[in-house]
Amino acid sequence: MSVLVNKNSKIIVQGFTGSEGTFHAGQMIEYGTDVVGGVTPGKGGQEHLGKPVFDTVSEAVLQTGADTSIIFVPPAFAADAIMEAAEAGIGVIITITEGIPVADMIKAYDYVKRKGARLVGPNCPGVITPEEAKVGIMPGFVFRKGTVGLVSKSGTLTYEAADQVVRQGLGISTAIGIGGDPIIGTTTREALELLIRDPETDCVVMIGEIGGQLEAEAARWYRDHGSNKPVVGFIAGETAPAGRTMGHAGAIVGGSDDTAQAKKRIMRECGIHVVDSPAQIGIKVKEVLA
């Protein structure tokens, strides 16, 4: 089993014919992902990468039975693309776009929730269930199928953690890159809960960073609801100066509980196995699964 995406997912690409959509859709198709078409307004009826192009998401869903969308639409129009996908009945909406205006995302976030869809991102690397479906921009060759779930705010650390796990002879069930913007659809806690409840995930790697309360909320949920599945945690940004945005728009220390040190303390208190370097992730996972 997996979470969010699998070999049966039918994916459409919004922003299909643009340069980013073209490149990454090609990579997804090459990986074996079932990309059933794409959406670019005004280009409906054409074919791109051997797949049909539609003017609207609702038309794409009607013609292909798509249930998952990945969005490469420019920031000014991405929130509308998210809401269009939700309106059309898409169940999982993965948004790669970075820099969507916060006011737009507040509107899109509320709309998606009302429609009962699952939004991942924005400003995220996507979701991958190895050897089944890659719906995102991650390098597929890094990932091997296994029983270690992965949730991460950071794209590059998602790949690094997967590589560390694979080097220990293990593999990934599903990796979820939740994104680093201030407003995201799926939180660390929600992603952790999905993986903890997945019967084929035996351990979860949770990667966070400075800023916000997402990791603390996830840790407290794990303490109160977690099973006997171990969680290995890492927080990036320990040396970042307070009050300055570092990398992601959401990565700014606003209070004493936002620091890496505070988050690691809370995670440890909640029973999470915290490592101080990403180089230790794979070793720690193998240790807790032994």
Detailed description of the structure:
The chain has nine helices and 14 strands. α3 runs parallel beside α4, α6 runs parallel beside α7 and α7 runs parallel beside α8. It has 290 residues and is an alpha/beta fold. The chain is globular and about 55 Å long. The longest helix is centred in the middle third of the chain and has 14 residues. The model has no long low-confidence stretch (mean pLDDT 94). The chain has a seven-stranded mixed beta sheet, sandwiched between helices. Strands 9-8-11-10-12-13-14 form a seven-stranded mixed beta sheet, sandwiched between helices. Pathway: Carbohydrate metabolism; tricarboxylic acid cycle; succinate from succinyl-CoA (ligase route): step 1/1. It catalyses: GTP + succinate + CoA = succinyl-CoA + GDP + phosphate; succinate + ATP + CoA = succinyl-CoA + ADP + phosphate. Its EC number is 6.2.1.5. Keywords: Ligase, Nucleotide-binding, Tricarboxylic acid cycle. Heterotetramer of two alpha and two beta subunits.
Along the chain, the helix and strand elements come as: EHEEEHEHEHEEEEHEHEHEHEH
Poorly predicted ranges (pLDDT <50, ≥5 residues)? Answer: none
Number of helices: 9
Kindly report the average pLDDT value: 94
Distance between the termini: 22 Å
- Principal-axes geometry comes out as globular
Summarize the SSE layout with pairings:
Blueprint: E1 11-14, H1 19-31, E2 35-39, E3 47-48, E4 51-54, H2 57-64, E5 68-71, H3 75-87, E6 92-95, H4 102-115, E7 118-120, E8 126-129, E9 133-136, E10 145-152, H5 155-167, E11 172-177, H6 188-196, E12 203-209, H7 214-225, E13 231-236, H8 260-269, E14 273-274, H9 281-289
Helix pairs in contact: 3-4, 5-9, 6-7, 7-8
